[in-house]
Amino acid sequence: MVKPTFIAAFAALATAKIAPSVHRHLESNHDVDVVIEFRGGNQRALEVARLERASFNDRGSSIAHVRSLLESNMETSQRAAVELLSSQPEAFTARVESFYINGNMHVYGANRVVLDELAKL
Asked: Superkingdom, according to UniProt (predicted)?
């Protein structure tokens, strides 16, 4: 069973950081499950939602708007990583899940080649 390990990759920085535990895990395993956290997370979307909250008449519309902002923020912040993963033949064996609620991306079964490319973002 593969034990999930975490990675913090900051998409806008050239020097992304990969947790040492990921490197240790890859020394004895072919792949690893990682969580990628993007710089800024969803804070910008939540701030916009907070400022626009008063313009909605009902709770349902407000919730739909917040979700829309979070999904849009997730798509924007993860665009480079998604493009990279879809263009990497080595990444085809990896399963990817994106979560709008926190803006994180979970990559299951990522190998060293894929992680090295993600770290360059």
From this structure: Eukaryota
